Amino acid sequence: MSVKKILTEPNKLLRQISKSVDKVGDAERTLMDDMLDTMYDAPGIGLAAIQIGVPKRIIVMDLGRDEDNKEPRYFVNPVIKNKNEEKAKYEEGCLSVPDQFAEIERPNSCEVEYLDYNGKKQVLKADGLLATCIQHEMDHLEGILFIDYLSKLKKSMIIKKLSKIKVKREIF
Ligand code: GNR
Ligand code: NI
Hints:
alpha+beta, Peptide Deformylase, 5-stranded antiparallel beta sheet, 29% helix, 28% strand, binds ligand GNR, binds nickel (II) ion
């Protein structure tokens, strides 16, 4: 188990479309363990594999964030079914868009089909923060970030800020 480096915008890898997993084997489970370590360390409530540079359709999540009572969730090859027409707004953040937050509107509930840690097929009904987080993570698998939903001006301001921070990090 190890903590990996999280890629941040702007980075072309984050725009890549992730590939389906053929089989949930030991390599995938090791990846999921590392993703979870990385997510808890950050800390965050969800992480897609591409955020640590691996273009596989794998997501980990833990909404609890209670140190002593971890409730990790693993989603391999997730597919969203039955998005609710009703929308909900949440203040979203992203570990790949550090220190930036914005209200994003998404379907307020959905169903997701996926393979679990052991490769078993599962279906989950999600609402509230869980539904928001699943949709945010699913977007990562398509190379989409929450800032893509903002106006061009807001998005470009955020990318400009993040680019400046990157340049500073390279100097020091
Ligand atoms: O840690 C995270 N918090 C969060 C809050 C509101 C909506 C989505 C998220 S996901 C984010 C972690 C992350 O970047 N996952 O891709
Ligand atoms: Ni994110």
